[in-house]
Design a protein that fits this description.
By secondary structure, the protein is mostly helical. The protein contains four helices and no strands.
């Protein structure tokens, strides 16, 4: 992706975030969603404290939150 545009940087400075930044294909995102759906289909919907810090429950979510493109927009 390279560097953010000046407009994107200004938006970040104004709002404290900038989105969307594509970090993976729609197919990869759908595959991750299917894993969550499969877990919830067999174990029930995540509730309460299980919905917070879910990366501690699932290694595949832990990998997602540590993906280089998510941690650094210049790698997207």
């Amino acid at each position: 992706m390279g560097r953010l545009s000046e407009a994107a940087i200004a938006r970040y400075r104004q709002h404290g975030y900038y989105a969307p930044i594509p970090v993976m294909s729609a197919d990869k995102a759908a595959a991750i969603r299917r894993r969550l759906d499969a877990h919830e289909a067999s174990h029930g919907v995540l509730k309460g404290s299980m919905r917070h810090k879910s990366h501690l429950l699932f290694t595949w979510l832990d990998s997602l939150i540590r993906h280089p493109a998510i941690l650094d927009a210049s790698k997207a």
